[in-house]
Design a protein that fits this description.
Blueprint lengths: L9 H7 L59 E8 L3 E9 L5 E5 L12
Antiparallel strand pairs: 1-2, 2-3
């Protein structure tokens, strides 16, 4: 299940069209708007992303989801969330303009364990 890259942020995938995969230990929880209570957007623990490894030939969209409308709120990311009977998943929570809330697998949108959770 481990790949060279793990989904860093489906927020970028859905809103900006980019994301990366990193090992689970490198994942940063995004549990509130702009990452912290001060709303800075700063990830002070970032040690993997650098200008040398974030290039267009290796950094880009992996997959997408079709939902019932546009996502206007910031997606929230939780790594290693346990779903009964499904195991642990890296999960993206999103809310759409139609007041739907989704829990989406952040690593893949198809196959066993992927997609809508």
């Amino acid at each position: 299940m481990s790949r060279d890259v793990k989904v860093f942020s489906i927020c970028l995938l859905l809103l900006l069209g980019t994301c990366l995969d990193f090992p689970a230990f490198a994942q940063v929880q995004v549990l509130t708007y702009h990452n912290d209570n001060f709303r800075t957007g700063l990830n002070s623990q970032e040690t993997i992303l650098t200008p040398t490894n974030v290039k267009t030939n290796i950094f880009g969209k992996l997959f997408g989801y079709f939902l019932d409308g546009y996502i206007y709120a910031q997606p929230l990311f939780v790594s290693g969330l346990n779903f009964p009977g499904q195991g642990a998943h890296n999960v993206l929570f999103v809310a759409t303009e139609h007041n739907s809330v989704y829990a989406l697998d952040a690593d893949r949108n198809t196959g066993a364990g992927g997609g809508l959770l």
